[in-house]
Automatic annotation (TrEMBL):
<dbReference type="Pfam" id="PF03466">
    <property type="entry name" value="LysR_substrate"/>
</dbReference>
<comment type="similarity">
    <text>Belongs to the LysR transcriptional regulatory family.</text>
</comment>
<keyword id="KW-0238">DNA-binding</keyword>
<dbReference type="InterPro" id="IPR036388">
    <property type="entry name" value="WH-like_DNA-bd_sf"/>
</dbReference>
<dbReference type="Pfam" id="PF00126">
    <property type="entry name" value="HTH_1"/>
</dbReference>
<dbReference type="InterPro" id="IPR005119">
    <property type="entry name" value="LysR_subst-bd"/>
</dbReference>
<dbReference type="GO" id="GO:0003700">
    <property type="term" value="F:DNA-binding transcription factor activity"/>
</dbReference>
<protein>
    <submittedName>
        <fullName>HTH-type transcriptional regulator YofA</fullName>
    </submittedName>
</protein>
<dbReference type="InterPro" id="IPR000847">
    <property type="entry name" value="LysR_HTH_N"/>
</dbReference>
<dbReference type="InterPro" id="IPR050176">
    <property type="entry name" value="LTTR"/>
</dbReference>
<keyword id="KW-0804">Transcription</keyword>
<dbReference type="InterPro" id="IPR036390">
    <property type="entry name" value="WH_DNA-bd_sf"/>
</dbReference>
<keyword id="KW-0805">Transcription regulation</keyword>
<feature type="domain" description="HTH lysR-type">
    <location>
        <begin position="1"/>
        <end position="58"/>
    </location>
</feature>
<dbReference type="GO" id="GO:0003677">
    <property type="term" value="F:DNA binding"/>
</dbReference>
Length: 281
């Protein structure tokens, strides 16, 4: 398939009209229309619905969008490999991580792999659902997550044991802050009920809640490695007799179609976790 057809499709999708797409592509609107017609004939479906407001995707167009992006990505990678033959000898490796694990674990892991000068690296920070889907669809080789979901085609390996502990500001211990650490934490919390979820201030992002608590006061559950420096300086204190919750870190991968040296990739991760002393978020 002509790559220009995929580029034209994506430009229409992003701009919303055939006219704007033609302007951005520096071609006539007639050319854009002809390209779409050719693409629709090749796919045997209608991709856009056109009206006075512009062009919107049909259900078939929405399904094709992901493949169009992948087609462009593969084409660009092929161009790069031909123009930089030395880099084409590197092993492609795509890794992902949840938002709470990118710093320092993902940062240090990528740095160690890059230093090995053997991998063509790409990285992706996303939600747990997206990471699992990307691994199952083979868009990622592996990902770091906090939630273990057991699928027959995936391999789950616990690589670290983290704890969520109840801490409070030494300046002001209120209000209660509830941080969404995932479905497993929700279940553990509801069994113990250290404080009411309904009346607490809700945060979907732990680092944000921690920064607010350090400035304005409050109490909540945070990762033990992250709050340890603040406990040592006296900015925070542990709330006695509050339950602690396990918060393990898992490496999720799909065993088949991994690079030959994937075991070395995993060993590198284990070394990073062992050597990392201060977790920033």
């Amino acid at each position: 398939m002509d790559v220009e057809l995929a580029k034209t499709f994506l430009e229409i999708m992003q701009s919303g009209t055939f006219a704007k797409a033609a302007e951005r592509l520096h071609v006539t609107q007639t050319t854009v229309t002809a390209r779409v017609q050719t693409l629709e004939q090749q796919l045997n479906c209608t991709l856009f619905i056109r009206n006075r407001l512009g062009a919107r995707l049909t259900p078939e167009g929405e399904r094709f969008a992901r493949y169009a992006r992948e087609l462009i990505s593969v084409w660009q990678a092929a161009q790069h490999a031909c123009q930089h033959p030395d880099e084409s000898l590197l092993t492609p490796l795509a890794l992902g991580a949840e938002h709470s694990l990118w710093n320092p674990v993902m940062v240090e892991w990528l740095a160690a792999l890059q230093a090995a000068e053997r991998f063509q690296l790409s990285s992706h920070v996303a939600t747990t659902d997206v990471l699992y889907e990307d691994i199952r669809q083979q868009r990622l080789n592996a990902a770091l997550v906090h939630s273990a979901r057991y699928y027959p085609d995936l391999q789950i390996e616990q690589v670290a044991e983290e704890k969520l502990i109840h801490v409070a500001s030494t300046q002001q211990a209120t209000p209660d802050l509830y941080i969404d650490w995932g479905e497993e934490f929700d279940q553990q919390f509801d069994r113990c009920l250290p404080f009411s979820r309904q009346t607490a201030m809700y945060y979907s992002h732990g680092p944000l809640a921690l920064h607010v608590m350090l400035r304005q006061g409050g109490n909540g559950y945070f990762r033990s490695r992250v709050v340890q420096p603040h406990l040592e300086t006296g900015a925070l204190r542990i709330i006695e007799r509050s339950p602690e919750f396990h918060y393990p870190i898992y490496l999720v991968s799909r065993p088949e179609r991994q690079p030959e040296d994937f075991d070395e990739v995993k060993q590198s991760l284990h070394r990073v976790i062992e050597q990392t002393e201060q977790w920033l978020i």
